[in-house]
From TrEMBL:
Origin species: Bacteroides muris (ex Fokt et al. 2023)
Domain of life according to the entry: Bacteria
Keywords annotated in UniProt: Signal
Protein name: Cytochrome c binding protein
Taxonomy of the source species: Bacteria, Pseudomonadati, Bacteroidota, Bacteroidia, Bacteroidales
Keyword Signal: yes
Amino acid sequence: MKKYLICILSVWLLTACSHPVNNPEKTEEWPEIYPDYIGVTIPATIAPMNFDYIGGKHDRIDVTVTGSKSGKIHVNARTASFPEDEWHKLLESNKGDSLLFTVSVKNENKWKQYRPFSMYVGDAPIDYGVVYRKVIPGYEVYSKMGICERNLSSFEERVLLENAMVPGMCLNCHAFNRTNPGHLSLHIRGQHGATLMQIEGNRELLNTKTDSTLSACVYPYWHPEGKYIAYSVNRTTQSFHTAKAERIEVMDMASDVLVYQPETHELLLSPLLQKKEAFETFPAFSADGKKLYFCSAVGKPMPEKYDEIRYSLCCIDFNPDNGTFGERIDTLINAEDLKKSVSFPRPSYDGKYIMLTLSDYGNFSIWHKEADLWLLNLQDGTMHAIEEANSNNTESYHSWSSNSRWFVFSSRRDDGLYTRLYLAYIGPDGHVCKPFMLPQEKPLEYYDRLIYSYNVPEFTNRPIQLEHRKIENEIVSSKRVKVKIHK
């Protein structure tokens, strides 16, 4: 009898808390929600797309999610938070179709029902997760930062490495081979500087500075076969604007591009990529591994001419059989003709496109409000701004999913101060759907309180395996593998 009474009481409480919507006032207006998920396309394995109502004072929000094929979820609470198991079942049942969201808001015992909106469930899968750096924006010194891994199907975030491990350490420039975390390169700056290289569990800390190169290796990009990894070497400085809306300018005083061969610990150089009269940076191999793309600018006196430096998109042939370069450089996008500067060229893995960032000048576009994403079609040579993904603020670093059907990018559109992550679907025809902000369990509370910016998002196809304590000991040790120039 006691158990029976408890069950009756539980059912009564659930019913009493459901607050059914009775005779709502209907409107054709869209509901004001945060994040703006109206009309987005999402992968079938994405975490629940929870949202908050931001259209004004309210007591409760009632949301019914109905699948076009089958299934339904109903929530009635202060915010729209969907049970994870039910959410994933609903998405799987409606893959390739859509979900309809009916939102009603209660204020002073009156309900208002808004125009229903859809989310489309893409039939193309997305990778396991995204790895990024979270860093407090700073200019003179770096504060707490970490390399984090986010499981895209849940709200689980893991800190992989953070600079609290070793005082004064800076972590950046992490890269994987086509989302495969078995091939990892990570740059460490500071007193214990090194390049952490981990290939299928075998780890080395490299000293990549030589007498023949400008600096240690940065800005990595793996060759698809995993036998090589391209880097740039950069002599970088930063300055502060005094009369403009921008805060800071990061610029190269000199830069070159090279390729590293892990098996032999050798750097492969080409005189065409080591020109003193040119700045070369941001290398990226083509999908077939037979070309090396990079950004190149005509060298000018720095920092006096900083706002006249514009980087073109160039490429050089590369032979993966013997690690040799071609004998000429081709220009794909001429910066001076376009009056824009190219940064972060990222070829799609299906060989169709290069996604890149265009800004007015320079190459560190994360500080340029005008920076936008563009798409270069490698089949016909045309290019266009990705209007569906761009905003009136900074769009910068971006990377592709393993199947080239999704991309992730950083943007300052939310508040103009912090970079947040957005994901978007791109169809086989190149059409891009409206992007959506990386979901969080309590999005408004989370992003309002977050003092970190997201930096360098990269997809991974499985969780990363790192031995934290061993890596910490290796970093503080003096043991480094010295790389050499290939003769």
